[in-house]
């Protein structure tokens, strides 16, 4: 028997075994991925805002300082420049250009923002660099050249280091992730409860004779699964019951020929006993063959194809007439009637109905009609019929209506049981009724187009 793996054979040891654990882990990974994306997006946005704001402040205050200090003599600028410093920018005056700071994306972005904010600054008169350690706090510095060749130096007080999330934000994130995971665990456990009940019920199947039914509940898919599980158990129970009844019936019927065999074997054989022994063996062989045929009908049928039921019924009647059954008539409601069926099973069922009528009545009137979306294959005879209190029993395997199950009539009592099984497999039914005189047997099948 081949095994179908619902999950890959290779296992990850960190992958939880339970559904709750797996869903929780997936949610945790999703939260961490979202947090990482948020850190990148908001971090970059905050860095951009900081650079833009700092560049604007430097541009405004540097231009204002240049306008003030540019009007003063050089010897006074060094004294006056520190007084123009603010809590954001420190100013100084010098005859020499500012020290060359490190260049990076930050300095280029800040310089472009300063020139965009204050177009009065000339590109060759503005220098911007970074001061400080590469992996520590870095501050923006630079200078503006005045008209007389002097320089007004500036340096930001605030660092432009890399963005870091605050501890308060991290604590909020941890609390949010914990709350989401707790809610997810509770919800998943609630949703997985029907699955656990299903697993428990499946584990108890076969322990006792009573069916283990599951109360449908939870989401729609879980309810459908519970209903399908209950229906499966019902079908299995019916299958086991029918098999048990068939085995009990054939075991009962085998006792009679076996008893006759024992008596003849323990006594003195007389003339004609050998023929009777052969007849008993043939009878037992016929019983076993009938049992095997019935059990085979319980298995999955053949392929269902689009079949002309009218042609199928015509061929059954033709075969019956070909072996000498002249008392078989046929009446068709229409020359063609197509349905999606297992043609072999339907042919076997109709043949059983015709043979049953010929065996017990000597005649069979076969007809095919359509009522709504159903096809009705009817076989009527003019024999003695069946007692009303036995109509519900004649479809039981190995049940025979003749008194005390005598063997004065042929057959093993399997014909109608097989017909009913075929009808059920096709979603139809077998209807039996006394026609006064005779018996009317109707094989009712849904038409599948």
Automatic annotation (TrEMBL):
Major site of localization recorded for this protein: membrane
CDD domains the UniProt entry points to: HAMP, HisKA
Domain of life the protein comes from: Bacteria
Protein localization: Cell membrane
Transmembrane segments: 20-42, 167-188
Stated name of the protein: histidine kinase
InterPro entries: 2C_sensor_his_kinase, HAMP_dom, HATPase_C_sf, HATPase_dom, His_kinase_dom, HisK_dim/P_dom, HisK_dim/P_sf, Sig_transdc_His_kin-like_C
GO MF annotation list: ATP binding; phosphorelay sensor kinase activity
Keyword Signal tagged: no
Natural source organism: Croceibacterium mercuriale
């Amino acid at each position: 028997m081949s095994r179908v793996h619902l999950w890959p054979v290779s296992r990850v040891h960190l992958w939880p075994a339970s559904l709750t654990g797996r869903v929780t882990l997936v949610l945790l990974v999703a939260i961490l991925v979202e947090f990482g994306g948020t850190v990148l997006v908001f971090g970059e946005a905050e860095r951009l805002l900081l650079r833009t704001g700092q560049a604007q402040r430097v541009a405004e205050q540097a231009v204002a300082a240049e306008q003030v200090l540019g009007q003063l003599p050089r010897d006074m600028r060094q004294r006056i420049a520190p007084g123009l410093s603010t809590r954001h920018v420190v100013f100084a005056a010098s005859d020499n250009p500012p020290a060359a700071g490190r260049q990076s994306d930050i300095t280029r972005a800040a310089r472009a923002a300063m020139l965009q904010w204050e177009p009065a600054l000339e590109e060759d008169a503005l220098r911007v660099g970074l001061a400080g350690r590469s992996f520590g706090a870095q501050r923006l510095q630079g200078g503006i050249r005045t008209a007389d060749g002097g320089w007004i130096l500036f340096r930001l007080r605030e660092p432009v280091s890399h963005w870091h999330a605050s501890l308060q934000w991290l604590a909020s994130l941890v609390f949010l992730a914990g709350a989401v995971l707790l809610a997810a665990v509770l919800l998943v456990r609630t949703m997985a409860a029907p699955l656990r009940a299903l697993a428990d019920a499946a584990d108890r199947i076969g322990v006792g004779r009573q069916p283990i039914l599951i109360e449908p509940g939870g989401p729609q898919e879980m309810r459908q699964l519970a209903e399908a599980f209950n229906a499966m158990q019902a079908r299995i129970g019916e299958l086991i019951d029918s098999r048990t009844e068939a085995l009990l019936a054939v075991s009962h019927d085998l006792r009679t020929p076996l008893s006759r065999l024992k008596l003849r074997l323990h006594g003195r054989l007389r003339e004609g006993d050998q023929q009777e022994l052969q007849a008993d063996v043939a009878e037992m062989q016929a019983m076993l063959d009938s049992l095997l045929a019935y059990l085979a009908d319980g298995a999955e049928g053949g392929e269902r194809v689009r079949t002309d039921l009218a042609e199928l019924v015509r061929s059954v009647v033709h075969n019956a007439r070909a072996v000498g059954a002249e008392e078989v008539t046929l009446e068709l409601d229409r020359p063609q009637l197509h349905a999606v069926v297992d043609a072999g099973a339907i042919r076997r069922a109709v043949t059983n109905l015709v043979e049953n009528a010929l065996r017990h009545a000597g005649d069979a009137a076969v007809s095919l009609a359509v009522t709504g979306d159903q096809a009705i294959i009817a076989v009527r005879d003019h024999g003695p019929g069946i007692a009303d209190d036995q109509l519900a029993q004649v479809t039981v395997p190995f049940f025979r209506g003749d008194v005390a199950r005598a063997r004065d009539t042929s057959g093993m009592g399997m014909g109608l049981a097989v017909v009913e099984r075929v009808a059920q497999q096709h979603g139809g039914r077998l209807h039996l009724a006394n026609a006064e005189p005779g018996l009317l047997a109707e094989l009712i099948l849904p038409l599948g187009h």
